[in-house]
Amino acid sequence: MKNRINRLVSLREGAQKLPNGGGWKGEEIEKYKAFFESSLDIIIVTNLKGEILEVNKAFEEVVGYSSEEVIGKSYRIIMDDENANRAFEKYNEALRGGRGISGLEFEIITKSGDKVIVEGNMSLVREGDRVVGFLSVFRDITERKRAEEELRKSEEKYRSLVESTDDSIYLVDKGGRYLFMNQKHLSRLGLSLDEVVGRKYSEFHSEEETKEFLEKIKEVLRSGKSVRYEHKSRRDNRYYLRTLSPVKDEKGEIIAITVISKDITEIRQMKEELEAKNADLERFTYVVSHDLRSPLITIQGFVDLLRRDIEAGDKEKVEVDLQMIEKAVRKMGNLLTDTLKLSRIGRIVNPPEEVPFGDLVKEALEQTKGEIDRSNVEVLVAEDFPVVKVDSMRIVEVLVNLISNSIKFMGDNPNPRIEIGFRVEGGETVFFVRDNGMGIPKEQLERVFELFYKVDNKSEGTGAGLAIVKKIIEVHGGRIWIESEEGKGCTVYFTLPKK
Amino acid sequence: MKEEKKVAMGKPAVILLVEDDEAHAMLIMRTLENAGIANKIYWVNDGEEALDFLFHRGNYVDKEKSPRPDLILLDLRLPKVNGHEVLMKIKKSEELRDIPVVVLTTSEDEKDMIRAYKNYVNSYLVKPIDFCKFSEMVRELGFYWLLLNKHP
């Protein structure tokens, strides 16, 4: 008890006279001593010089020093310079203002050197009309701070997860009202988060899209499971794979729905291309297996007949049998050659080069000179052809094919003529090879590009020519089509990439 | 064999063979001849000619040149008008639909087969590569449709 009075006496030393502004009276501290001792918060009483006069049990427990170790020492014993200086300023501020300060936060260094974060407030201690010291109450908030920091870090982690992705991610309530949206999706919509949150899906989408979306939400609510569907956006005409997943509260009740929307336009295109290629391949296999089988049946058949005809000594029939076998073998060889040719086109062998189209025509006419001369065909060639960027050899092959087709199907026109030219249509150059031959019946126009399709069964060749031509043009990224009127000739048109 | 020949002789059968492959046509005709089944085989090599023959058009206006066949052997991959279309037109015709049509093709494709049956084909046969089997098949189909099968 004597000790205590001494301390209060020391409190009076250097006491300052200040206007009355609340706070503690010296004797009250004494009065509430028991209460202070039982407090879970740290309580420190200092004089105006900052010397510690009193600490409670909670202080001893948290900071690690016994009261004997700190009483009479400066408050700086439990703080580093930065915190101590800040405390000094705050206490001066309190003195100047004549009232206590709340909302303080400091880092305290314990006896063992650990850091403890505390928050609290400070009141002035008065003796009569004079301020004689400070009473500070602090609460250890280290755990809370750490939890807050962890939460912040984990939020940061999830935020970066949501924001760094290329997918659109947003959260809607059960009525389709936006709760959150990531930057990726905001930039797609051209909006800011503030403009979106609280607004409805329907405000940014067409009626049709909204209907579909709400239907899918219903499905999620009904099943409690994720729902995935392909969506074509009216905004950019791209395809998105949307996954709607339920967000549940602790009771398992659905409270919101997350939407993750992935742009699958390219994947879809690739899939379509692949499907088209597969269909092509299937057709190809069908035709090849069918057409390669035919000569085999012929050979096998006539070998058998040949055996019988030899036995019977029928020389005439033997000769026919041999001819049929030879023909079939030749046909098979041609089919295989053409099939191989067709399969090679996919891989352009020569890199595309810029070349005047006229040069290619000249080369093709050179290669078909023999046929042209024999058939007495007049060839008209346009001038000032544009420059194209192509695999020259392949395009010459196309022209040779088309020219010899024209000659082959010239019919009995007394003035046979082939015209090679071009025209510009909608910014696109269309080349053509035109003849005034027998033409092709309308119902067969579609089929002429089919592999091994022959308009005239008696004509030479395997019927692969136009299939090869088409493939070459398509590999170049062009289109090819045919127009014809039976008896009046036909025109094959095609486009090629410009230089 | 004897009995069959007798029957065949009793009632000359007419076969229309629609086949674009000349060699195959020869093989089929020789097989049928050797078996002594058909007295008259008419061979056309595309779908359009087949229809001309059956409907007495073009080169076949003269009905003497194009008698009503007792059996039609039809290939599928044909120039001009393909086999499926020929089959469809036959089966749609009041006059022709009761003539048995046997598809004789190299196509084992299921789509072709299904389509042919949907168009009321009477039989669908795939040409085997082995000639013994091939000629046996042709012989048997001739016997079955022209001799065994009862027909109005």
Task: Describe the structure in your own words.
The complex is a heterodimer of chains A (499) and B (152). Chain A is an alpha+beta fold. Chain A has helices spanning 2-12, 26-31, 33-38, 57-63, 67-70, 81-97, 142-164, 183-189, 193-196, 207-223, 265-312, 315-345, 357-367, 369-375, 392-408, 465-475; strands at 16-17, 24-25, 42-47, 52-55, 101-109, 115-127, 130-140, 168-172, 178-181, 227-232, 239-248, 254-263, 353-356, 378-381, 387-390, 417-425, 428-435, 480-485, 489-495. In chain A, helix 15 (392-408) packs antiparallel against helix 16 (465-475). Chain B is α/β, with parallel strands linked by helices. Chain B contains six helices and five strands. In chain B, helix 5 (110-118) links the parallel strand 4 (101-105) and strand 5. In chain B, helix 2 packs across helix 6 and helix 3 runs parallel beside helix 4. The longest helix of chain B has 18 residues, at 131-148. Chain B starts with a helix and ends with a helix. Chains A and B meet through helix 11 and helix 12 of A and helix 2 and helix 6 of B.
CA gyration radius of chain A, whole angstroms = 47 Å
Please tally the β strands of chain A and state the result: 19
Number of helices of chain B: 6
Largest interface (CB < 8 Å) = A-B, 27 and 25 residues
Order of the strands making up the biggest sheet of chain B: 2-1-3-4-5
Distance between the termini of chain B: 24 Å
Structural class of chain A comes to alpha+beta
Overall mean pLDDT of chain A stands at 86
Computed Rg of chain B: 15 Å
The largest sheet of chain A is: 7 strands, mixed
> What amount of the residues of chain B lies in strands?
15-25%
Distance between the termini of chain A: 105 Å
**On the 0-100 scale, what is the average pLDDT of chain B?**
84
The secondary-structure class of chain B comes to alpha/beta
Summarize the structure.
The complex is a heterodimer of chains A (499) and B (152). Chain A has 499 residues and is α+β, with helices and mostly antiparallel strands. In chain A, 45% of the residues lie in helices and 25% in strands.
